[in-house]
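Note to self: keep these together.
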Amino acid sequence: MRRYLRALAIACALTGSAGLAAAQDYPNRPVKIIVPFGAGGPADIYARQLAQHLSEELKQSFVVEDRPGAGSIIGTDAVAKSAPDGYTLLAMSNTHTTNESLVPNKPFELMRDFVPVAGINSSDLLMVVHPSVPAKSLKEFIALAKSKPGQLNYASSGPGTPYHMAGELFKFMSGTDIVHVPHKASGEARNSVLGGHVQMMLDAITTMAPAVRAGQVRALGTSGASRSKIMPDMPTIGEGGVPGYEATIWLGIMAPAGTPKAIVDKLNSSINATMKRAALQEAWAKQGATPMIMTPTEFDAMLRKDIEKWAKVVKTANIRPQ
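Structure:
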């Protein structure tokens, strides 16, 4: 037994030493960040901003590659199957935590096949309708939806995405029957609402607020527990007629399971240092995004809590698994 324990201790020490050596040399070639969503959405935008800063921070290229499809499953599976060496990372969102209960037959499990690296940011969603919709307030929209059950539509970037879950939560809490129209990417969903093909959408405030200011859509409410700092005159959905409603979109970085802890810690430190930059925080604040600065352990706990939260919502609201 003593020999076994001694051998185990030596093996662990050697493994740890190898991980530290790998981290000291990391990164020595370009790092790929796979975004499993479409171009132009929050994950794509913020992953590219983060990649630029990390390239400066770590003196190596960080390259973003969009691989949308199947509500994030295609791109996420590609990362799960990648070598756990820190050179392929996943830009993920709460789509991934909801998919744990909404899509039971995925080729991966989030907390088994990935390791949490760092949070990026969070932001409110903004409920908007096309100007042709004859509702000037949230209460009027709810009344309109109740008078026309199954006749109004809402857009999302696919099953399990924050836009989809926010829409289903709204339907459940407001007692309305609005038809879900999934799209391949958030940009397509956004364009459907801007073009009047779909009446409503709950979209990231960071990307939809400019369209509101331009008069292309009408805003009815924000999705946070309190009013958004970039649209302080806009009531929350909770204030507007659905008490207790809250849904946000957040982003983070994960790596394939088995990635050396030393590399994960180095990435976490560099990402957090990036998000502490005053210029970046100021730019994000103007867009309505709040940095999520946390350790890998804290991010792990947040992910597990969010998985549990949305599993309850899926069950309570009777949202059908995809």
